[in-house]
Write a structure and sequence with these properties.
single chain, about 140 residues, mainly alpha, about 85% helix
């Protein structure tokens, strides 16, 4: 995996971490921070369906992977529509873990690409899930 992709992956963590810091510095209302966090998390989760969509279409598969590719967007949208609900961040957090495990089992991209991608995703997902935990338990 090229370094540009890694840098962009790590850059994607900035809003999660910045909103965690903002929560503790009380720079903005906790309600606004929670809403912004949920929105960013839902949007980013929907991105992970795209790799499965591409993998299934490029491999000419029509099975479950095409359907699973749609789930992150649907789950993100449901959580986005329930931004004030306490369970929304828990569902988003669990969804990040589930799509990561699904990635490791199903992706048929070249093996070296899958290994590099899942290695990066393990690190990124760990930070994302921990950021969700901070948001959930600090509220």
């Amino acid at each position: 995996m090229n370094s540009q992709a890694k840098y962009l992956g790590y850059a994607g963590l900035v809003p999660f971490l910045a909103l965690n810091v903002a929560l503790f510095t009380e720079a903005y209302s906790s309600t606004l921070i929670y809403i912004l966090f949920t929105q960013y998390s839902a949007v980013l989760l929907s991105f992970f369906g795209g790799i499965h969509w591409y993998d299934a279409v490029s491999s000419k598969r029509t099975g479950h992977q095409l359907y699973v590719a749609m789930l992150p967007t649907i789950i993100g949208w449901i959580c986005l529509s329930q931004t004030g609900a306490h369970w929304a961040l828990g569902v988003l957090s669990i969804s990040y873990l589930l799509i990561l495990f699904y990635d490791k089992q199903v992706l048929t991209l070249p093996k070296d690409m899958v290994v590099a991608y899942t290695k990066l995703r393990m690190t990124l997902t760990t930070v994302v899930v921990l950021s969700h935990a901070v948001m959930i338990f600090a509220r």
